[in-house]
User: Fold Methyltransferase family protein from Blastococcus xanthinilyticus.
Amino acid sequence: MPTESASPSAEQLPARTAAVWAALDPLVDTGVALRVLDVGGGSGMFAVPLARLGHTLTVVDPSADALATLHRRAQTAGVGERVRGVQGDGDLLHEVLADDGGYDLALCHSVLEVVDDPAVTLREIAGALRPGGQVSLAVANRAGGVLARALAGQPADALAVLGDRGPAPGRPARRRFTPEALLALVEGAGLTPGAWRGVSVVADLLETASGADPADVRQLELALAEVSPYREVAAGLHLLATRP
Ligand SMILES: C[S@@+](CC[C@H](N)C(=O)[O-])C[C@H]1O[C@@H](n2cnc3c(N)ncnc32)[C@H](O)[C@@H]1O
Assistant:
């Protein structure tokens, strides 16, 4: 059973991920302990707070360094026994997890941008979920990337992001998504998408430019995350999808 009633979306968490935690809260703050798979979970930015809520985490990540940091963080937070790190690739989950499927919840945050093939990764994640299990997806939003570069005084870079080109000849573009592309990817993996949110509509833009109260920025993020036309220009997109 969860050991804490306080949700990880509480005051101290950064405004830029407030919309993600707002989507996760109804799933993770119910008093029921879940089996959670965090694909590309890195050093545990999400895994450790979820373990502190009483959930059991398996983090799959190819980076030995990130997994070592995850292990340290989990130990320090007193949840080492509920956090397992597995070195591996999101495109090959069936190999690294073997028969270890049936997860209630999977996270795939800021990872589809860097895997070899996001469609393969998402199908692998779908296969690791139990029927009715859900995946939380967070990806970079192309429109937000264009806007951020334009506002930073980098119009050439903004045009490159708009055209899905790299920042310089020969340098590949970081993969970015549109809401439509993300929805198509989810449906292609046989998952049922829920409503999508904008993640960090203003927080990243404000970071360097303003002395605004972080609590006010967090409130603004939560108010804008599900509302058009604001969510369309957020730095990121978030979606919960369900395995039928
Ligand atoms: C930007 S970090 C995101 C970390 C974490 N998900 C978060 O939101 O804080 C991207 C992570 O993806 C991992 N990664 C890179 N290639 C991967 C792959 N093929 N499969 C799974 N994870 C991968 C990296 O090692 C890194 O930890």
Summary: Confidence is low (pLDDT under 50) at residues 1-6.
